[in-house]
Structure prediction request, 231 residues.
Amino acid sequence: MRIFVLTGAGVSAESGLGTFRDKDGVWTKYDLNEVATPEGFARNPALVRDFYNARRVNLAGAEPNAAHVALARLEAVLGDDLFLCTQNVDDLHEKAGSRRVIHMHGELAVTRCHHCQATRPDVAALTAEAVCEACGRAGGARPHVVWFGETPLYMDAIEDALAQADLFVSIGTSGSVYPAAGFVTEARAMGIATCEINLEPSANAYVFDEKLYGPASEVAPAWVEKILGEM
Ligand code: APR
Prediction:
């Protein structure tokens, strides 16, 4: 059985990383236009760097929860028959043992040079003074995160994997941001079974065949057990 799993901020909520649109979510505290757009970075790069530096500090202290561990276990059994696509920029899937994680919105623990696009693993604070090792220019350090208005990563691989899936499962996402929010509709149109695992119904809950609600750290492991038990 080929399974396509899409995760969102809700899968990392119980690891202490804030979600975006819940009560007290990240976007209730920051204006995304100021900190998560190319225009915001051009206007005030220091504000953007401060925003992501604070998220890097949070990430350093975060541990994967039972949902991340369950998905790593599912990958250990399914191997290439599991396609794990995450909207999250955290590395908690990897910390839980997942080997193949598709970060369609990029990765917080990677720095990209705004001048030459070179990327490198990095958890240190982003600074204006940092000199890019690839192009030798300073002032370009940004997180390797896909901002609003930028193109998500790995979309060809994602669409291929979606078309080959027998089951599409969404875990911990509000279904607010496209193209990720449209994957369930694409899956349904291709006759692929769909399942939503979330704390509460998402914006596109009505599209899903199966809906399992509750904390991801409880519902996701139970769902993985069920899948493995049926194999
Ligand atoms: N268990 C399961 N689901 C949870 C939990 C939990 N413990 N806590 C919250 N959720 C659910 C919420 O009900 C909500 O539907 O997780 C979802 C989080 O939604 P968002 O905050 O909108 O996060 P996400 O869907 O990942 O956002 C998508 O938007 O801001 C951009 O690039 C950013 O990747 C992000 C994208």
About this structure: The mean pLDDT is 97. The pocket of adenosine-5-diphosphoribose is lined by residues 8-10, 13-14, 19-22, 25, 87, 105, 172-174, 176-177, 198-200, 202, 215-216 (CB under 6 Å). The domain at 1-16+64-105+152-231 is CATH 3.40.50.1220 (Rossmann fold).
